[in-house]
Design a protein that fits this description.
By secondary structure, the chain is an alpha+beta fold. It has two domains: 4-103, no CATH class; 110-203, no CATH class. Helices cover 52% and strands 14% of the residues. It has helices spanning 4-32, 37-60, 66-89, 91-106, 112-121, 143-146; strands spanning 134-135, 152-155, 159-164, 172-177, 191-196, 199-203. A six-stranded antiparallel sheet has the order 1-2-3-4-6-5.
């Protein structure tokens, strides 16, 4: 039989592993489904504040000693607080997971060569007045872009950018250029992951 101190440690590790592991898995899956990072964050808070405590409390209901119940639940709460602090202190970890999921989910649907050919056929110059890029209206999107349902599409001489999410800072998306295209620093603290030569996914968060 497991002694009481060891049982408490087990509850602590169980709660910590549940919250950290499953919240990270869900961040990857929300990226894969292109559901937006807010969905992953919502799941973390759900796990931390609801599911985790319920799981540990369920394990304690058969314990006979009130002091032991209080100790186990108190450690559960302490672990949750630590997990929340950890989650908020290393946001890049969640960004990488979301971006990797987004890359793995969206790229099989993207016809890179068709987009490159379309980019060459767009009338020049690729600049709107006062801007360094040209925004492409939804009515001008070809079918192979429209099926991806991006929020915005715009082009420069070097690349096509497809982006998703709300706001004007392009929370996440894809850069598609020539095979020799170099993607410079964006200045927006974006996380950029290479997919293949000239193709990158990026993430800035919402």
């Amino acid at each position: 039989m497991i002694n009481k101190p060891l049982s408490i440690v087990w509850d602590l590790l169980f709660c910590f592993a549940f919250i950290v592991l499953f919240s990270k898995i869900f961040l990857y899956l929300t990226g894969f489904a292109n559901a937006g990072p807010l969905a992953g964050g919502a799941f973390f808070w759900l796990a931390a504040l609801v599911v985790g405590p319920i799981a540990v409390i369920w394990r304690t209901v058969k314990k006979q000693h009130l002091k032991m119940r209080i100790a186990r639940i108190s450690l559960c709460v302490f672990t949750i607080v630590c997990c929340v602090i950890l989650r908020l202190s290393i946001p890049a970890t969640g960004a990488e997971l979301y971006c990797e999921g987004f890359r793995d989910g969206i790229m099989p649907k993207v016809d890179v060569e068709a987009i490159r050919t379309w980019h060459k056929e767009i009338p020049r110059p690729l600049k709107d007045e006062g801007l360094s890029v040209k925004f492409i209206s939804r009515s001008e999107w070809p079918d192979f872009i429209e099926k991806l349902s991006p929020a915005r599409v715009y082009c420069s001489e070097e690349q096509v950018t497809l982006s998703w999410g709300m706001g004007f800072n392009d929370p996440w998306g894809i850069y598609i250029g020539s095979q020799t295209t170099y993607v410079p620093e964006t200045g927006w603290d974006a996380l950029i992951l290479p997919v293949r030569p000239g193709v990158y996914v990026f993430f800035r968060g919402e």
